[in-house]
Amino acid sequence: MTQQLLIAPLLLPFALAIALMFAWFHIRYQRVISIVGSVASLGLAIWLFGRVWQGGIISLQAGGWAAPYGITLVADTLAVTMVLLTAIVGLAVSLFASGSMINQRLRYGFFPIFHLLLMGLNGAFLAGDIFNLYVWFEVMIISSFVLLTLGGEKAQLEGAVKYFTLNFLASIIFLTALAVLYGLTGTLNMADLSVKIALIEQRSLVDVCALIFFVGFGIKAAVFPLYFWLPASYHTPPPAVAAVFGGLLTKVGVYAMMRVFTLMFTRDPFIENMLLVVAFFTLFSGALGAMTRNNIVKVFSWLIICHIGFMLAGLAMYSELALAGAVFYMIHDIIVKANLFMLAGVTNKITGTNKLQMMGGLYANYPKISLLMAIPLFSLVGIPPLSGFWPKLSLILGGIEQGHWPLVAMILLASFATLYVIARVWAEAFWKKQPEFERPAGFRYFGDYPVLKRVLMLLPIGLLALVSLYIAFGAVHIQTLAQRIAAELLHPEAYIEAVLGSTKELMP
Amino acid sequence: MVLLGKWVKTVLWWLPMVLPAGLFVYFLSLGTATQSLSYDWLPQLGVRLSLHLDGLSRLFVLLITGIGALVFAYTSSYLKGHAYLDRFYGYLSLFMGAMIGLVLSENLISLFVFWELTSISSFFLIGFNNDQSASRKSALTALIITGMGGLSLLAAGILLGYVGDTYSIIELTQSADYLRAHPQYSLAVLLIFGAAFTKSAQFPFHFWLPGAMKAPTPVSTYLHSATMVKAGVYLLLRFTPVLGGTELWQSSLLWVGGITMLYAAFHSIFRTDMKAILAYSTIAALGVLVFLIGMGSNSALQAAGVFILVHALYKATLFLITGIVDHETHSRNVLQLAGLRKVLLPVAIAGLLAAVSNAGIPPSFGFIGKDLMYEAALHHGAGAWVLLGALILTNVLLLYAGFLVGIKPFIGPLPEKHAHLHWPSAWMWVPPVLLGVLSLGFGLWPVAASRLSEVFLPALGLQPPPALKLWHGFNLILGLSAATIGSGLLLWFLLKPGEKGLARLQKLAWLSPERLLGGFARGVGMFSVVWTNLFQHGYLRYYVMTIVLVLSAGMGYRMFNNYTWQTSFTPLLNLTVYEVSIVAIMLISIGFAVFSKSRLAAVAGLGVVGYAICLLFVFYSAPDLAMTQFTVDTLTVILFVLVLYRLPKYMQISNKLTIARDGLVALTFGGLVTLLALLVLEQPVQRDVADFYAANAYLLAKGKNVVNVILVDFRGLDTLVEITVLSIAALGVFGLLKLRLKTTERRG
Asked: Which residues make Cβ contacts (< 8 Å) with residue B526, sequence separation at least 6?
């Protein structure tokens, strides 16, 4: 029974999307359905997490075709953690969109597509088949592209063209890698691949294949020097969309890398050096990029890139400790980044601008909201004991253990740059008096919204801030979780057993 | 504090000061025994919240809570009626908690946690007057400098924890010999220095401290003179038993401390703003402390311990009276202030007491402090006279600076405009007077301070020192003290404060660390713009090209670098006529598509390529695929033609060079992928899965067409999802065609 329910995180958003489409012209119902559905998704994710936490890895063979012949869905601890985080962010964005998004966008199918995007994310996390993973990536690309263009503003379309072209290129590269891999092994099941790749003698071909995967996923994860689409597009959609993008989309790329480079491609010097160098420059470029920008959303966008470097660094070091650091960082980052983009949405409605020079006065006019916003901002910096601090301990210790001095130095410098950038944001947007400038005519300010809408905008920020605080003060729990995930990733025997071990009973 | 905001501003104004006062009494009541307390925090990584109260932390804790109580009391009047008084107390309490945690932490990581919290609360307090841009800038500068130090401390902590296999400072002390011999020792020391020097404002990182004086005066008193800036000194003292005793440790501290104290003492005498004078003299005092730790002898460390207390008492007094003078007269310029004793008598007394202690005139506590200092320097052995000279010079200059703030505003004729001033509230003048009296009292009854000093050295693993005494009889040190006071007074009578000295000093400002580091920061800023725009230039075509080049470079590197070629191209000789001719057709039509001058022709060319692929499918007995490919291709061409019809006329915008470059990139990438495909085909084929499909499509899935069975049954989930993709695309197209937002409706 539990096995069959593994498909529920896919079916629930799918059913929601269909239900929402039937309520096409009734956006009021859509809001309610979306929020209630998101709460249900969260409950489901918590339940699934509990099952896997207690009972170990669960797998489901779709259509009853035994692995490796059919498509396998696998829920290991990493996968269910990601599903849980998706559900949390999904609920937050559902609330935020209900409060902040204009009716025109809602009337053209924002909610159904949003839930289909969540379905794509869940699918990618649960996929145990590499081609199936590709298919879920397609869902994410197309639905994110639609969300990005919804509204058809000029800036949106310009960003969307770059977004789509480069992400589509990533998909083609992913597909090429798939073809090469299939040619080498004759299978698509990831557990089966884990066994079969190890047997291939021609290691340089395996490395080339790994490299192509890396570039494909690297584009999605926005690593150096493949990140171009991200700063070009993330500031264009409405904040609710940016929040789900900033929180989750790039992390899918990181997730895929974590999966592929632990389960399938075991470590050799080529892969290791590649990851180390890319992690180093991703931290470097992201940090520098964030320092150059004067638009709060663009600053956050560049910080996404910078912080992808932390996760990549943990993956590159490949020790259990460092990998746990990477996982911990990812958990923290998903929550905080989603929150930051919602926060920027609210500051935009308060000040009427995203430009730091033009912003100001938040602290004087909205002290309580400011204090609320300080939580995600300073969590991001990792002011101890807030959530961004703890994973860095593991990452730095991991780096010192293995003597990766340049990477350790870069981790520290990137942390420093984040501190500087956020302190500057605080000084400019919150402390400074807002300069006078010509407000766009017809702009709807925060104060003009009805109370319910304002609550709907602030509630998810508070919700995610609470989660961040839990990560900070319950760091013991998260560290335990992260270490268990790291151990599972580095010792995939249980994963392989869960997928292939059940083969016999299903075989006719 | 935040929750009680409204109350704190009105009736409960006395509440905040109960907290530090209570803690002060509590810590005092603990006696001199060592206490500890420990909780697991992040046990997986060995992070514990372990608090340990020994002689060193006791001195600091009493300073933090004692001066804290007075500052809190002072604030209740100084900022009376301020709109954000509640926040102010909130930050101040946060700071106090963090600072107590810092000096009690026995675990390196929890030490770092509290260290960062002091930095961040300092940031909020410096920027408290946040509508002034100077305040914001100073807050940022301070955060940048101390933040850098904080990360340095983090790295040091983790490194020491890794090398010593524990984060416990006590356990690290036990393996001190091992640590000192370890190859990473120097790195650890430099990182600790990085943290201590930035926090304690040592040259060349000192410049954030004068800037931090933008904070309200209670903050300057508390954080930037009495407690927080001494955290670096605390760190050095704390690590002396762990890392100290080596040439690197001792002489670096001597040099840095020495340069800092001379540099800052010299600067302090040319300032005219009372707070600026105090800022520089604080830096000088911190330099003296580092210098003493650098000497490292028992007596030097004892002198450091005593001087921490001496300095905290008199400097806090001077800051507090500065605050009162500023509050009453709205001026802090020593050139304009005079004769205030006539209207602010208790303040003048406090100033006098502090200035006397600062000058080290007997029988003040400062005299004892200076005595110990000179004694330590005298017994230092090699270079004793140089060290002594540096100390004497610093003290002479500091005496002058202290007189400028503590005495100058109160003597001479009272200007007309200040004649109407009245005594401030007792909450304001009692704290400085109390501190001033303590400065005197500890001098007259050194026994009172002896109890602190007795446990101070044992905390560093050293023998307890002899009891403090005021009078040692007539000896060389007394002579030196007298000489210091004499030359200080001489300087006081000869050098009149003025703007000229400062102006002359400003001419050298371009050489100052502030300017140099500022220039460096600007350089980093410019570099970051160049680097960022180098990659993020906005041209989609170059983004694509970069990605393709990265991929090609990686593939090429791995394929040609130590690859053992086993490929035989014999299969290529077995091609049939059909295959060769189809490939020829494909090549020709690709060439046609590339070189054609018309879009329509290019599309037609691509269509031919598609049909050729269809034929290949037919030859390899995959008619289903051929039909699918045929349909897709036909539709693509038709759609393309429909779209192209609407586009403007085709124009040649690239020059020959770009075309050649693009062609080269494309050919390289295409060639590499082709080569890769050939290499992969050479590998032994694994057919388990494919054979399973072929064997079981009919038997198990009841379908005669294997391809169809794979699509709808074996891998039916993929197909379902792909259909969903198409539906989403349809929704998107609908939205794109129908929904056009106006600019006023943006954002939301």
From this structure: none
The predicted-structure confidence for B288-339, as pLDDT tens digits, reads as follows: 999 999 988 888 888 898 899 989 999 999 999 898 888 888 888 888 887 8
Domain boundary among B244, B268, B301: B244
pLDDT reported for residue B596: 83
Is B595 within a domain? Answer: no
The last residue of a domain, from among B497, B523, B555: B497
Q: pTM here?
A: 0.92
Reported ipTM: 0.90
Distance CA(B37)–CA(A478), nearest Å, equals 25
Domain range for B519 is: 499-536
Based on the fold, state whether residues B478 and B510 are members of the same structural domain.
no
The pair of structure tokens assigned to B525 is: 């800023």
Q: Of chain A residues 144-173, which have a CB less than 8 A from chain B?
A: 145-146, 149-153, 161-162, 165-166, 169, 173
Q: What is the pLDDT of residues A362-418, one digit of tens each?
A: 888 888 899 899 999 999 998 888 999 999 999 999 999 998 999 999 999 999 999
Cα separation, A263 vs A200, in Å, equals 15
Q: How distant is the Cα of B217 from the closest Cα of chain A, in angstroms?
A: 20
User: Residue A150 contacts by C-beta under 8 Å, 6 or more apart in sequence?
Assistant: A105, A108, A109, A110, A113, A156, A237, A241, B732, B735, B739
Q: How many domains is chain B built from?
A: 3
| Separation CA B524–CA B516 (nearest Å) | 12
**Residue A135 C-alpha, separation from nearest chain B C-alpha, in angstroms:** 6
Q: Which residues of A touch B559 (CB under 8 A)?
A: 204, 208
Q: Which residues pair with B168 in a beta bridge?
A: B107
pLDDT of amino acid B1? 47
Mean of pLDDT over chain B? 85
Taking contacts as CB-CB distances below 8 angstroms, the residues of chain B near A423 are 123, 139-140, 143-144, 147
Separation between Cα atoms, residue B172 and residue B179, nearest integer Å: 8
Pair type for strands A58-62 and A71-75: antiparallel
| pLDDT at B514 exceeding the cut of 90 | no
Question: Does B440 lie in the same domain as B314?
Answer: yes
Give A505's pLDDT tier (boundaries 50, 70, 90): very low
Q: Which residues of B touch A412 (CB under 8 A)?
A: 151-152, 154-155
- The verdict on a CB contact (< 8 Å) between B528 and A291 is yes
How far, in Å, are A69, B11, B233 from residue B614 at the CA level?
27, 88, 79
Asked if A64 has any chain B CB less than 8 Å from its own CB, the reply is no
Judge if B216 and B253 occupy the same domain.
no
Domain boundaries, chain A: 4-433+447-500
Q: Are A442 and B744 in contact (CB < 8 Å)?
A: yes
Residue B314 lies in a domain: yes
Residue A249's closest CA among A280, A213, A217, A275?
A217
Identity of the residue numbered B441? G
Verify that B280 and B195 share a domain, yes or no.
no
pLDDT tens column, A304-313 = 999 999 999 9
Do B202 and B271 belong together in one domain? no
Q: Which one of B554, B718, B745 has the shortest CB-CB distance to A211?
A: B554
Same domain, B350 and B453: yes
Instruction: Answer yes or no: do B229 and B268 share one domain.
Output: no
- Do B240 and B361 belong together in one domain? no
